[in-house]
Write a structure and sequence with these properties.
The structure is a single chain. This protein has about 500 residues and is of the alpha+beta class. It folds into 2 domains: about 10-315, Di-copper center containing domain from catechol oxidase (di-copper center containing domain from catechol oxidase, Orthogonal Bundle); about 325-485. The protein is built from 14 helices and 14 strands. The strands form 4 sheets. It has a 5-stranded antiparallel β-sheet. A hairpin with a 5-residue loop joins strand 3 (about 275) and strand 4 (about 280). The radius of gyration is 22 Å and the shape is globular. Keywords: Copper, Metal-binding, Plasmid. InterPro entries: Di-copper_centre_dom_sf (IPR008922), TAT_signal (IPR006311), Tyrosinase/Hemocyanin (IPR050316), Tyrosinase_Cu-bd (IPR002227). GO terms for molecular function: metal ion binding; oxidoreductase activity.
């Protein structure tokens, strides 16, 4: 029998919803709600003009006052420097709330430097707009990626964005990473652990977030700013992360989608940002408070406001999430770039019954797949594809019934004396395997001989690029399959 003492259980407190999502008076009274708009919409032209003016002033500080923490380079250094990620949160459950705060204080700086107090940061919806907007190109355009920090960081790239103006995300890339259908499959996931990351990276981070960083920044070996630790040097970073934040808001507004309730998450704040007066700020907002973006004075749409209000009102009781069964798979075999894991011992009757419970679609049951010890390869333009079931080959398509999901990497590029994030750094990745389990086992019970084989395959991130890491280069230590009752 498999028990789950290796994975911690966590509580989601819906009864505390009123407290968790309370709008602080000082914030609510200080500003009216701003609506963040799609950067491709004509409605965003005013905000885009203010963004251009504000970024120009922040870049000017590089020369006039290089020690000003509001300057363009030092703002990027909040995220990462030449050698490492600095204050930003990646590969853990703070990924979404930390970047939410980062965007908020950047938005305030643009308001200040542009003189537009009503400025709201636009978002780039790459699911609909498949190119970097043309408004972010041009030699004299402050919104182009025209800053190089080679004078202070020898491994930094030259100025210039990797992805040329007008080049589109391909249909295959949309299907695999950022198209509307792929994004909706991620957004429908009700489990924060596999969506936002608990003890590792969730789907929001490792699929669309990482892919867009690589797609924009690493083209033909260019390795521009967007794939560096200091990726905010490229102005499109802010539009990209604004879209990630929009997806986070959308996820939170959906019924049954609950953030962590542990104090460690709810009460965590981040004090590494700067306000318009150069003061270090951030502690006034906790992760729990910013679940509702209205705390920070902005929304993305009236529909999200309505949905969030209804969702919060429905959270009237304490809901406990519990891992009810775990299967450990550390036995592996590597054949022709397919790394397969199988259960260490035969599946017990209880395990097979619980997997079948999720397979037939019993409400509140999800199957988490936790891949531990994934190594960062030197060639990060690599897609990692994960399948359940037998007979998986290096060419098995994502239309296969056992397809669980995929991910890619964003952990700095180029040289530098990395402390943690060097090639070979290990991370954990969490994927929701429930739909694959339904397709494979919804109409048939697991047999005693079924070992719940998990197979991992690597492929080129971009279809027209041959260089990618082998599965041996990213070889994880083990796979853990958890059956979780979201309403235990």
């Amino acid at each position: 029998m498999f028990t789950s003492k290796t994975r911690r259980e966590f509580l989601i407190s819906a009864g505390a919803a009123t407290a968790l999502f309370f709008l602080p008076t000082k914030v609510a009274q200080a500003q009216e709600l701003r609506t963040r708009k799609n950067v491709a919409s004509p409605d965003a032209e005013g905000d885009l003009a203010s963004l251009r003016d504000g970024v120009s002033e922040m870049k000017r500080l590089i020369n006039t006052d290089p020690e000003d923490p509001r300057g363009w380079i030092l703002q990027a250094y909040i995220h990462g420097n030449c050698n490492d990620f600095t204050d930003c949160k990646h590969s853990n459950w703070y990924f979404a709330p930390w970047h939410r705060s980062y965007l908020y204080y950047f938005e305030q700086l643009i308001q200040h430097f542009s003189g537009n107090a009503t400025f709201a940061l636009p978002y780039w919806d790459w699911s609909q707009t498949h190119t970097v907007p043309s408004s972010f190109y041009g030699d004299a355009n402050p919104l182009d990626d025209n800053i190089s920090i080679q004078s202070i960081c020898s491994s930094a790239p030259t100025a210039g964005r990797g992805r040329p103006d007008g080049e589109e995300i391909t249909q295959q890339e949309l299907e695999e990473y950022v198209g509307p259908v792929r994004i909706e499959s991620i957004q429908q996931n009700p489990d924060y652990a596999t969506y936002g990351g608990i003890g590792g990276s969730g789907e929001l981070e490792v699929i669309p977030h990482n892919f867009i960083h690589r797609w924009v920044g690493d083209v033909g070996g260019k390795n521009s700013n967007m794939v560096q630790f200091f990726s905010p040097l490229d102005p499109i970073f802010w539009m990209h992360h604004c879209n990630i934040d929009r997806l986070y808001s959308d996820w939170l507004s959906r019924p049954g989608h609950l953030p962590p309730s542990e104090d460690e998450w709810q009460n965590q704040s981040f004090n590494e940002f700067y306000d318009v007066d150069k003061n270090q700020v951030g502690s006034e907002f906790t992760c729990g408070q910013t679940v509702d973006s209205r705390v920070m004075g902005y929304v993305y749409s009236t529909d999200q406001i309505t949905n969030l209000t209804q969702t919060l009102a429905a959270r009237s009781s304490i809901i406990r999430q519990q891992v009810v069964e775990s299967v450990i798979e550390s036995k592996s075999i590597l054949v022709e770039n397919v790394l397969s894991f199988e259960a260490n011992v035969d599946l017990s009757l209880r395990t097979r019954r619980l997997i079948s419970t999720a397979a037939v679609g019993v409400p509140n049951y999800v199957v988490r797949l936790r891949i531990e010890g994934v190594k960062t390869p030197k060639q990060q333009n690599t897609g990692v594809f994960v399948f359940l079931g037998p007979d998986i080959t290096a060419e098995t398509p994502i239309s296969a019934p056992g397809y669980v999901g995929n991910f890619t990497f964003f952990e700095g590029q180029g040289g530098g004396n990395r402390k943690r994030w060097s090639h070979g750094h290990k991370k954990n990745v969490l994927l929701n395997a429930t739909e694959a389990v339904k397709r494979l086992y919804g109409d048939t019970r697991l047999s005693e001989s079924n070992s719940l084989k998990v197979s991992i395959v690597t492929r080129s991130l971009f279809g027209d690029q041959n260089a990618f890491a082998s599965v041996e280069e990213i070889q994880p230590n083990m796979v853990q399959i958890d059956v979780v009752d979201l309403n235990a």
